[in-house]
Amino acid sequence: MTAVSEKVPEGRYGRSRSADEQADRKLKILGGILGATLLVIVGWFGYDYVAGSKVSGEVIKFDVVSDSAVEVHLEVRKDADAKGYCTLRSQAEDGEEVGRADFRFDQDSGRIDKVVTLRTKARGTSAELLGCHSD
Fold first, then answer.
1. How far, in Å, CA of 102 to CA of 95, rounded?
2. Is 60 within the bounds of a domain?
3. Which of 7, 85, 117, 121 has the fewest Cβ atoms within 10 Å of its own Cβ atom?
4. Residues 77 and 46 grouped into a single domain
5. Confidence (pLDDT) at 16
């Protein structure tokens, strides 16, 4: 008697098991690389958001001195070498914006305490800090 070998024709019944395992391995490697890249990008943006804020400010108080001016006591905290500006606005009693201005801070101090005058086109009843930004 002779032994008959039962071998299926190559490529006739789909890919072999080793080809599937090889493809799975490549997909796992690609997924790992893409996942690591995504983590690095998210980490970079998070760090930049937290560490990138070099200037911050706070309105301590404000005083309406006339129908065309509001004095604002502004405190700014920043890195000593940072330069930037803060944007203030004033609104009338009905909510209409009557004044807006940027106040620049270039001093080499980490904390600046200053009273600034915001000019208005009508009587302002509020003073609001919209934000501080570094250059």
1. 20
2. yes
3. 7
4. no
5. 63
